[in-house]
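Service request form, structural biology core

Requester: graduate student, group of Dr. S.
Request type: structure prediction, single chain
Budget code: on file
Notes: please return the result as structure tokens.

Sequence provided:
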Amino acid sequence: MYNPDEFTGLKHAGDTHVQYLIKQDWLLVPIPDDISFERASLACCGLGPTFGALENMNVGASDTVLITGGGPVGLGGVVNAKYCGAKTVMVERIPYRQQKAIELGADLVLDPDDPEIRTKILQYTDSIGVDVCLEVAGVVEAQRLCIDVTRRKGQIALIGECGDDFAIKASPDFIRKGIVLLGQWHYNLNGIFKIMKVICESPVVDKMITHVFPLDSIQEALEISASHNCGKIILKPWED
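Core staff response, request fulfilled:
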């Protein structure tokens, strides 16, 4: 089997903020003619992780989905959940991203620092709890919130990378509530045309992209990313 690492001498064939990138050919699926490169890029780390989670959990119009973390992946979760017809609750502290979640269709946006956040989520769900959680923030506090407000027989997908230890109380947290816990990276490649369908048909997907830069302006792009006052940032490798 061809190994691009041997050809380049680099682990994983190098970084991805480049003009040229080596990948296995089976990963390179064709982009439909009616989808721009900018939109198609959302099938990666914009819409991809939460799309895979929602598909694995069979989310539909009868569900209420809680999303913790309003970065590009979390905002993609709003787009995907609304496309499924679900009610959507976003938990995010940055005002810019709170507003962006509303623009994308979030039905309720809450600040994680609100001491009444659990009460408000339960009130919104008639004291039942949410059906599905997408934990995208990658922090222990968000993981704890998901367990606390998920209904009996509900589902939680851990998507955000987290290096901290998380204490789980097996009996009250999972066994007695019957919660299903899912670890989610991206999505099965067989679902590529389904996610392209979301990109084509969602009326708000373009609002995910808030900034577009040429590759030469990557420093400015990274600074805006670090400020968190952004949605998805696009780098265009062939523009000055």
